[in-house]
Design brief:
Elements (H helix, E strand, L loop, with lengths): L1 E7 L4 E5 L2 E6 L4 E5 L1 H9 L6 H11 L4 H17 L3 E8 L3
Antiparallel strand pairs: 1-5, 2-3, 3-4
């Protein structure tokens, strides 16, 4: 079954700076710093993942309830999509 998932955009230029991540949107000329949970989400998106998979992993790392995690990660993903850093994908087969 194909699920809606998220993946890193191929056009985003990204560099690790210690535990932080810096991304560059060349078209817009902006840089974005990612720390903490934002950096964790970015790292998890090395492979396409759906919202449930992201939250399962984040819930194991951070003290947050499921509803708050889903809400905040959904908002973060939408911001990252708007900035050209993340894309939606539907060619994703969820395992497990």
């Amino acid at each position: 079954m194909n699920e809606l998932a998220y993946k890193r955009s191929d056009t985003a230029l990204v560099a690790d700076v210690g535990e932080d991540i810096v991304a560059l949107n060349v078209k817009r000329g902006f840089t974005y710093g990612m720390t903490g949970v934002t950096a964790a989400v970015w790292q998890l998106l090395a492979e396409p993942r759906d919202l449930d998979q992201l939250c399962v992993e984040l819930l194991s790392r951070y003290e947050v309830d499921v509803e708050t995690c889903r809400d905040q990660v959904s908002r973060l993903l939408e911001e990252m999509i708007a900035e050209g850093l993340v894309e939606r994908t539907t060619g994703f087969d969820r395992k497990g």
